[in-house]
Amino acid sequence: MTEMNQETLTEWNVGQNLDDLMNLDPRGYGVCRILYDGSRKLAGEPLTMHAAKKLMETVREGDEVLILTGFVLTPSLCAETDGIIGAMLLARALEKAFRAVPVLVCPEENVPAVKAIAPLTGLHLYESVEEAKRFPFSMAFLTFPKEAEKAAGRADEIIAQGLPSAVVSIEAPGANAKGFYHNAVGKDVTPLEAKADILFEKLQQKGVATISIGDLGNELGLGTLGDHLNRYIPYAAPGSCSCGCGGGLAAATRAGTVLTATVSNWGCDGMIAALAFLMKNPEILHDGELLGETIKTASRCGMVNMDGSLTPAVDGFGLKMNVLILELMRECVTYALDYAGYEPGKTWFRKVLELGFFQ
């Protein structure tokens, strides 16, 4: 760890608090711990702060930021609540933080939720990037095909509308090295999923910053953790999936920045919370009331819990758990910002730093 002062120590500890919250493991099976070990070693600092800093380095006022999401589940054949909720709330945060133009890219199954949630975020919704750029407090949404032969052309169409400064994938399905998409238990779901890898990789080749948020390893961009996934995540290694493709569930595409959490939406919350802290603006982070209403709205629009039900939940976790984790994140951010100017606290920071534990 580099030499610390009060500001950097606070940043590090707030980031660690947010990382710990987004990796809380109520299930107890440890997958989030496995993923975090690999992604943290790559980042070298708390993942939430690392990803938020990447946004601050790359995004400027008026920039487009693409947000890719939308995992379709069996047997319901509906899109899940994880991903779309984080994506819509990230759109809100990007507009508040940078006056950026968020552009959501998703499969058709997500469209009803996108249209219903946008007013909750305070953003006007348009079906073209050009329109979203013309008006304040706006975002765009674009659908992406599931047919591989159409995906490259669609990607070129989107890129022709203007290069974004960053692309963020949140719980977006990622193909393995053989081109197959898998669900959490290694079953082939290739026909169900939008082939957004092609867009992601084309943008990457043009030098666009890439951030991937996931919670298992089958998400677009988490190929960055390749060997770690293959060694420790069930069904990830080549030949271990149950569909017979021989490739495993691990995504092949590698993002420049990866953030892993128990639930992808929680990871997105953590990144937004870190951004709010770094920019000293708690309003960038949504509150529990908005999160709860967003989850309920997504469910009413046909987005499903991981069991396929229309219960207002995310990855099996109900409203209470999702809201509590978010509100704890908000408290970590607001308290640290308020405490920074507390004079007796400055003495304690100085004394702690003098004793060298954090050096």
Tell me the β content: 5-15%
Series of secondary-structure elements, N-terminal to C-terminal? HHHEEEHEHEHEHEHEHEHHEEHH
Can you tell me the CATH topology? inorganic pyrophosphatase (n-terminal core)
Total number of beta strands: 11
CATH top level class name: Alpha Beta
- Give me the number of helical elements: 13
Rg, alpha carbons? 20 Å
* C-alpha geometry: globular
Q: Give the oligomeric state.
A: single chain
CATH superfamily: TON_0340
CATH architecture: Alpha-Beta Complex
Pfam families: GLUCM-like_C (PF14336)
Organism: Caproicibacter fermentans
Domain D-glutamate cyclase-like C-terminal: 18-329
InterPro entries: GLUCM_C
Any overview of this molecule?
- This is D-glutamate cyclase-like C-terminal domain-containing protein.
- The protein is α/β, with parallel strands linked by helices.
- It has one domain (6-354): inorganic pyrophosphatase (n-terminal core), CATH 3.90.1640.20.
- It contains 13 helices and eleven strands.
- The longest helix has 21 residues, at 319-339.
- It is globular, with a radius of gyration of 20 Å.
